[in-house]
Amino acid sequence: MxxxxxIYRPWPEANSLLLQVSxxxxxNNCTFCDMFTDKTFRKxxxxxxxxxxxxxxxxxxSVKSIFLIDGNVMVLKTEFLxxxxxxxxxxxxxxxxxxxxxxxxxxxxxxxxxxxxLKAAGVDMAYVGLESGDAVVLDKIKKKMSFEQxxxxxxxxxxxxxxxxxxxxxxxxxxxxxxxHIEETVRLLNIIKPEQIAPMALAIxxxxxxxxxxxxxxxxxxxxxxxxxxxxxxxxNMNFETYYWGDxxxxxxxxxxxxxxxxxxxxxxxxxxxxxxxVTKKDVLETFAW
Length: 290
Known about the structure:
By secondary structure, the protein is α/β, with parallel strands linked by helices. Helix content is 39%, strand content 17%. The protein has a single domain, classed as TIM Barrel (Alpha-Beta Barrel). The longest helix is centred in the middle third of the chain and has 15 residues. The protein is globular, with a radius of gyration of 19 Å. The relative contact order is 0.11.
């Protein structure tokens, strides 16, 4: 099978077969991200994708889960995606789950009928980078998405029955916009109600525009205490059912489980960390590059 450049997949997809359908990310401007800076965005040739699917069938006697890469596969034209998904389902009749990366704007730019076609063909789930609900933060990180656009895209995905895991980043507002960042993010989450969420602490990626801003003193990182307070606010103020993937390796207190069933337990854990963990005395959280 053929892969181009650095390859990424969400940690819940650790056991999935990875099939590269597009190269890179159609945005590829976010200041905090270096995942696809080595690539120019484009779709792969359909015959090359089909060849990889056929080769995977020869390699693996049973495939239960497939994850489509690269950055936001959902941006591709519906007709093209339907060809790929149909080929996958025909080749792997035992398949139980088919997921991909998307943006809320990718959902927004499709009709609900197009998304329903993709769902009916076999697309079960999308991983979406929400990052923040705060307009100021979204503008500073060059997300090219507004609060309102996220609401519109999320509504279309929900109407089509495509499950969404929305990821967002504690500390992305920095030291001086922590409060606005988390309050607006939670307000947005309570509107769009993703079926799963994945909050993670900000990690400054080497070579990114955000790293340059940090080194120049233009972006002052949120403290570990602020990051914990952001998570506490999230746990206290979310008002919908979801699965909480809070176990990213950079999180101060990794934890996961169904919300709101875990709400009290998670809040007790966060309050304990705030009260006793020496990390709260530090100015900057030490994290690992992706």
